[in-house]
């Protein structure tokens, strides 16, 4: 089936993006080992403690999602206060409860890599248009995905709808 085939290609492309991101993480880890963070090996730890919902301290994080490329341009924000320190995906889920645009995000799970954000607020990246949701802290691209990145207190995370090229992956 043609649609099945194109879906596989689409997924492989996303895996490639994730792998690029993982490679960036490895390079970073080799050149500048980060100090231990409690019992976790790094912020980009793929294996998280089962009881993480109970172990993180309460922090404040701002999530933003910006789309200047697709017809329905938007710039949404969710200020999360007093949320347990956990992987970014959890904050994204919480953001949906206070800012409706974040309610409409879709993700796909890839074994060993974690969740990849497919769409936010109805805007979806595609291989055809070479677009995706790029995740940044300040102006710096995150070195890992939403399943492994753990935000710091006071951090602002931007989900920016962009092209592979603009993000430096092409
Ligand atoms: C906006 O996104 C939709 C759905 O992903 C897509 O069909 C459309 O071509 C996009 N429009 C622009 C201007 O990129
Ligand atoms: C967000 O994406 C737009 C569109 O590609 C780009 O012009 C802009 O520089 C990006 N912003 C950041 C902070 O990367």
Structural description of this entry:
- With 170 residues, this protein is of the alpha+beta class.
- 29% of the residues lie in helices and 31% in strands.
- It has helices at 2-31, 52-55, 88-98, 100-103, and strands at residues 58-67, 74-84, 105-110, 114-120, 123-124, 131-137, 140-141, 156-163.
- The protein is globular and about 40 Å long.
- The two termini are 30 Å apart.
- One 2-acetamido-2-deoxy-beta-D-glucopyranose is lined by residues 69-71, 123-124, 126, 129.
Short description:
By secondary structure, this protein is an alpha+beta fold. 29% of the residues lie in helices and 31% in strands.
Q: Specify the biggest β-sheet.
A: 5 strands, mixed
Question: Strand-residue fraction?
Answer: 25-35%
Structure summary, number of beta strands: 8
Net shape: globular
**Number of continuous helical runs:** 4
Content-based structural category = alpha+beta
Strands, helices and their partners?
Elements lengths: L1 H30 L20 H4 L2 E10 L6 E11 L3 H11 L1 H4 L1 E6 L3 E7 L2 E2 L6 E7 L2 E2 L14 E8 L7
The structure holds 2-acetamido-2-deoxy-beta-D-glucopyranose (NAG) (2 copies).
The site of one 2-acetamido-2-deoxy-beta-D-glucopyranose has 7 residues, from strand 5.
Key traits:
170 residues; alpha+beta; five-stranded mixed β-sheet; three-stranded antiparallel β-sheet; 4 helices; disordered N terminus; binds 2-acetamido-2-deoxy-beta-D-glucopyranose
